[in-house]
Amino acid sequence: MEPSGEREEREEREGTAVAAAGCLIAALAAATGFGVWLNGAAPGLDLGVENPxxxxxxxxxxxxxxxxxxxxTLLTWSLARAVLRARGGQGxxxxxxxxxxxxxxxxxxxxxxxxLDHRIDRIHPAQCAEKPC
Length: 133
Description:
This protein is mainly α. It has one domain (3-123). Helices cover 76% and strands 0% of the residues. It is built from three helices and no strands. α1 packs antiparallel against α2 (56-83), α1 (3-41) runs parallel beside α3 and α2 (56-83) runs antiparallel to α3 (90-123). The longest helix is centred in the first third of the chain and has 39 residues, at 3-41.
């Protein structure tokens, strides 16, 4: 096989691996977003007699986290791929790109968890907020 044919074959295999990694990252990010939403929104979805259900948790926050987590994670991963394209060894690039994905998911999880805590506190204030309780 000639050198250009080998290069094309290698680029095709690399493209397939990159597409598979992107799909895996998107699925992991969506699952993380759903887990954060489920953990943070559970008190707001309680169907108690005295507590109203806030349906905006279902039609605003849930889709935002299900689609926002993968979108932002894939954007940061693609940016890291573009920046590191010709730098360092292949193993180093993989480690840095993996770290970028993990850090992105951690930061998104923290920010969305704080957001949901704030939203739930507004919906269901603490029972004993006043001094003479």
